[in-house]
């Protein structure tokens, strides 16, 4: 997924980071358990990426709690993903909405605490072939044992297969920074059973 660098005029149905979503009538904005609206991270129109394991139409909305410019993942309700259809009915109309300015009970959220929308950044998609990391357990599951030299070579090849101009992708294999979670996520992506995560990591 890369940022559009040409023809950046805002389009009604174009994938983007930040900004405001286009949604059907009756869309319920995700909130935390204490009734605070989440921040929209982006909207992906599925007809633009055409991945076989996702619906072919509609869009995905990604939300999170953003505190002082950083995404919070402290509580389970700090994030949400919503699929929305292409239309709200026979009329086929969608509308652009902004984050709620009041709690569900009607009490206004103080201006200083209201969601500040992230900057609207239009996106475009390109396809790329990716390889898994050199995680030793992944190869061991296939009966393959890599020497340190082979592991380093594989790492170079796998890194070269990753999209060079974008740190964001859908599908493929994870490239995480946390060493404690990287093997677990790689195993899950490959369908390999992993030891349970300890309670602190979960």
Describe this structure in words.
This protein has helices spanning 46-49, 136-141, 148-161, 182-190, and strands at 2-3, 16-17, 22-23, 39-45, 59-67, 70-72, 79-84, 95-96, 121-124. By secondary structure, it is an alpha+beta fold. The strands form 2 sheets. Strands 1, 2, 4, 5, 6, 7 and 9 form a 7-stranded antiparallel sheet that branches. Strand 5 (59-67) and strand 6 form a beta hairpin. It is elongated, with a radius of gyration of 20 Å.
- Which regions are unreliable across 5 or more consecutive residues at pLDDT < 50? none
Strand segment count: 9
How many helix segments? 4
Spatial gap, N to C terminus: 28 Å
Q: What is the overall pLDDT average?
A: 76
Radius of gyration: 20 Å
**Residue share in helices?**
10-25%
What pattern of helices and strands is seen along the backbone?
Answer: EEEEHEEEEEHHH
Classification by helices and strands: alpha+beta
Measured by DSSP, the beta-strand proportion falls in 15-25%
> How many strands, which pairing sense, and closed or not: the largest β-sheet?
7 strands, antiparallel
Q: What shape does the CA trace take?
A: elongated
Quick structural gist:
The chain is an alpha+beta fold and 202 residues long. The protein is built from 4 helices and 9 strands; from the N terminus they run ββββαβββββααα.
Question: How are the elements arranged and paired?
Answer:
Layout (H helix, E strand, L loop, with lengths): L1 E2 L12 E2 L4 E2 L15 E7 H4 L9 E9 L2 E3 L6 E6 L10 E2 L24 E4 L11 H6 L6 H14 L20 H9 L12
């Amino acid at each position: 997924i890369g940022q559009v660098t040409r023809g950046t005029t805002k389009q009604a149905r174009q994938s983007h980071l930040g900004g405001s979503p286009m949604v059907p009538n009756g869309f319920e904005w995700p909130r935390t358990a204490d009734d605070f609206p989440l921040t929209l991270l982006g909207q992906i129109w599925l007809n633009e990426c055409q991945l076989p394991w996702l619906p072919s139409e509609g869009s995905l909305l990604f939300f999170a709690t953003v505190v002082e410019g950083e995404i919070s993942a402290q509580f389970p309700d700090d994030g949400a993903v919503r699929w929305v259809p292409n239309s709200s009915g026979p009329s086929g109309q969608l509308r652009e909405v902004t984050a709620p300015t009041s709690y569900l009970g009607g009490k206004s959220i103080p201006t200083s605490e209201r969601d500040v929308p992230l900057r609207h950044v239009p996106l475009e998609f390109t396809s790329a072939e990716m390889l898994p990391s050199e995680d030793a357990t992944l190869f061991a599951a296939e009966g393959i044992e890599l020497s340190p030299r082979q592991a380093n070579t594989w790492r170079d090849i796998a890194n070269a297969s990753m999209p060079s101009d974008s740190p964001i992708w859908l599908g493929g294999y994870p490239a995480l920074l946390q060493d404690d979670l990287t093997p677990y996520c790689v195993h899950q992506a490959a369908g390999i059973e992993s030891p349970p995560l300890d309670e602190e990591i979960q």
